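Quick log. Single chain, no ligands specified.
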Amino acid sequence: MNIRILFLGIFASMIISCNNRQADVKSNVLSSNLQLDDHAETIDAINKVFNDTSKNSGTNYSIEQLDNTKGLSNSSVNTIFQDSENLLWIGTWDGLNRYDGSNFKIFRPELNNENSLSNQVILNIDEDNAGRIWVLTMHGINRYDKKLNTFHRYYFSRKDKPPLSESEFNMALDSSKNVFCAVKDWGLGYFDGNDFQLLDIKNLASKTVKKMVFGPMGELFVLFENNELYTLRFDTNNEGRKFISKAEIVSEKIREFGILSNQKVCIISTTGVSKIYSLLNKKKQEINGKDIQKIIGNTHEGLVVSDKSEYFLINSEGNIINRPWLKHLKNQKITTLIEGSENIIWTGTDGDGIFKMFPLRKSFNLISKVQVPELDGGIVRTFLEVKGNSFWVGTKGKGLFRFPSKFYQNLKEPLDYENFNESNGSINNAVYALCKGQDSLIFIGSDGEGINVYDLKKSKLINWSEIDGNEKCEYFKSTYTIYQDKEDFLWLGTNGYGMIRFKLERVGEKLKVTEFKRYIADNEVA
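-> predicted structure:
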């Protein structure tokens, strides 16, 4: 849906003023005691990059830092997820955070509360098709019910075994939002709606999973601790239970991988060589010129990755592309990145919290009395766009204005417009309502008698007195709102004359009013 908002005013000028890891759990304390001076230096450095890049690219970017001084539970961030309600979920080394755009709600394990989180270190977050939030922690998988505000813990066989690494539990959701998991000493499984069911994977069952992600064709990519990357495909038997129908090795000696669109995968070997693997022809294409160290996250254009000195994008064709906003990440120690709604880039960092970044665009343009002198002294009360034809503005005091369609897209050119008002005898100066009706008619409500109609077919404004049958209708004026229903009845809301209902039809070359009724406050029909 494209939404266009236009401000029309009467002033020539206007000012809008809006004046590493488990050992690093100690960062829970360190990042909670970061000095404000450190944050100031970080922001200053990033803003300098923003300003320099903006001068070259012509695009200004806004950046906002959210860390423990702003309410985030911990400034070392592992994962970020935006749910179907546009709520932002941030997984840190000390708690799960939910951000609504203004405030943080923090979730942590609670002593003697089985309905709280199983562990404070959050590694991954996702949402199933029922709107439940799934949270992967260092010790257990959790399912969060928003309505009940409770967590259900899944420890599998490791409830009484403290975690020794971040890979003992893993989780991935497929395109249908079914939950799959991998747990050390338990195996690979899926959630059937009530509980997790173990999948028979035989020769791979005893291997610990480092990472698991679903690909574009429904296959599950699984990177095991021995650096072997596999694809697993699933099917369902007659009893409705899932099983692995095919397990195929993609490559050995793989340190990291990321999913691209167009059925391609970016794989990084333990030797540092990066390649694009095609799921269609099983071919591998080496990425030249870049020593990729880490895969940071995804945008609609591709994977965001980093080498030793910069961040860049790899698109679905395996090509390296640069975008101006990537330079703005230069001074961030990024651990994760997502592209959220409204094209906002959210980055999580190791020690500096999260950053919100988006391009600044000029959202509003001002139509002033210099361009439209007749607007001086008028107050805009209503406007209407007739796609491909015209743009209408009703004012209190200066009548009705008709502009060309999409006139606001090139405001540097002189404006071509018409003004209908009492001076030229066409309409009352106070226009309160505009409605695009059937049969190329625009209905106009004003402080004058009856209503006015503009016939788009004839490019003609028609007064109430020119409409056949008006003399048989009870007197009314001051129409403040107009609506036409599916049966072509016009409904008018007036100031002091009740609610009016009637039909307006073409009869030959004229318009005719029929089925007129007036509803007043005592519920009687006039």
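The mean pLDDT is 86.
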